[in-house]
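Changelog-adjacent note: as of this version, every example in the card shows the full chain rather than a window. The one below runs 287 residues end to end.
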Amino acid sequence: MRTFRHLLGAAGAGLLAPVPALAAAGSAAAAGPDTRMGLFWLLLSTLGLVLLVFVLLIVALVVALRPQLRRLYALPTVHDSWSGQVLGLLVGDPRLVTGQDRDVQLDHDYDGITEYDNDLPPWWKYGFYCTILFAIGYLGYYHVAGTGQLQTAEYKTEMRQASLLLAATPDDPSQLTTYAALTAPADLAAGKALFATNCAPCHGTSAEGKVGPNLTDPYWLHGGEINHVYKTIKYGVASKGMVAWKGKLAGKQILQVASYIQSLQGSNPANAKEPQGEKEAPAVARR
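Full-length structure tokens:
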């Protein structure tokens, strides 16, 4: 008991120790909004310290009173009651959680195999009851009241939120540009030079198609309208092996290449690769 009194005194001192800190935090809060987060963490740590001291106090109390609790638990009127089983957890008897095997055999056997007639462990039954309550709450919240979003609705909401965040950036791959094709000879010449340097290894010197598709026919994998061609060049198509030229070519250079590609429509180069994708009329070509 002397040890318990020492523990109790130490716990009381621990509870009183945060008081000056709280007073200092209160004066700091009046200094301005910059101290609010510091005050929050101080209060949170103080609360955690108080809870820790409280738990240690309870543990010390149980340890100090364990002999008296064991004698109380041994009483016949207490031992088999529900409150007695709770008390048993404190003195080392886990019957309330694990249950108690009766070791009573059933009156049948099969090829010499018999089984005991034991109840399910309480922890399993309580867990099963919790799942039933959870299922009822889930059904009422999502399907009866319609308060919560189901998976499909939640997915659509998250996609809308993501599109809003993405649209807020200046370089949004989901938004098409509104450029018109360049027709000036200087721009087409620049686009031809860029195509020969960067695009010909995959699409051929005349855009007839090699590893990449033929760019001179009306068939398009990702659309043939100028802004769709611009988008494909800029962001690439990783699944098709088309690299992204963003960061390697300037915006005007990408538009020059896209305009040059459009100028090759119907040129019918030799050894043209077979058509790929969907056919689009040149006047309404869309990606």
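Structural remarks: The beta strands are 219-220, 278-279.
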